[in-house]
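Sequence only, no structure available. Ideas?
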Amino acid sequence: MTQGKVVDLFCGAGGASLGFVKAGYEIVGAVDADPIALETYESNLCGEGSLDEYSGKVSFDEPLEADLSRDYEDNKVDEDLRTVTFQDIREYFGLSAGEVDIICGCPPCQNFSSLRDTEPWPEDQPKDNLLRAFVEFVEEEVPEVVFFENVRNILNAGDENPTTYIDWLKRSMGDIVKESDSPQNGGYGVALDVLNAADYGVPQRRKRTIGLFVYGYEDDEVSLPSPTHTEDATANADLKEWISVNEAFSQADSLYQGLEAGEKQVGLEGYPDDKAHRARAHHPSTIERMEAIRKRGDSWRDLEDTEDENLIVEAHQGLEKGASASYGIIDGERPAPTLTTRCTTPSCGRFTHPQKNRAITFREAAILMTFPRWFKLPSTNDDSERIVGNAVPPDLIQSLASRVSQSSSRTPLETTR
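Reply:
I predicted one. Tokens follow.
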């Protein structure tokens, strides 16, 4: 018997779903608007025997491709894609009202990303329409638990009042009441904080806002699970050491670590073919720049005032601050920096391999996101890095979800306190 039934909204390629499956839950529905992400989800998580090694399961043959914006403006979604309510989702997956125990939601929130400036918005109005839609989905089902994952900057987004948006979110979730309950007995208690994925066994310093909402609880009765890992385990014997990039790669089964730029793990003696373990081909000048950076340090700024200064790209010439991560070398003895949707493009961040003069491969990026070795990625480069960079690390969700226990199938979930 599984721990509970989960619907994964804005499911992407299935990182959160896989985390819940590994923690023993049943995924009874998954919805997204991205066809490439959904193809990846289906090819990996759906079908007979695909997840037999785990205690949980996915109970449908294919996820639902639909617009989750509920007719709010979302310029990134195909205008011909139909919008859905939670009732539409129930009908598609054959669910009954009240059957879902957990709604997991990772709505895209570029408006709050550190990669762009925030914009003003009216007082008491949510800035991102997809988040407004997410709350409405919760209102239509009112599950016992809601998991929420988002960019870290959402916690301090606001112009005059940095907590404007989060105050709205907490208030909205606190006002949701089941038809059979009184306002005094309803509402969601919430624990909301920025967590570092490295503290939960992910070989990546990925800081994200994680929310746990539990129906019928007060805020002080809900807490996020404590970390399992730490940067310095000698200071806390109860925690494990952070998992480094080198450790993650060395533990990956049959991963050939000698790839050069433009090579892939196909036709290599002693290694199974893995088309996703392919390194982008770089211009000779890019490889020369990588070599010089490695010789001088780990950043293009280390080339300043040296005989290799001419290798600094024109866009960075004379730049006094910012962009220092571009062409940076990953420190193999630490967890990786946050992987983005350009995580195999060296000009877009600190994504150069710890030992090789190339960017990390798509498979290496997936490993740093804690996807299993068997996880299939799109065949095109840009789609592969976008799918991985947008993902939720499965092991982060597994670590959090495994410490949310359910005493029976229809009683409120209790968090580890």
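The first strand starts at residue 5 and ends at 9.
Hope that gets you unstuck.
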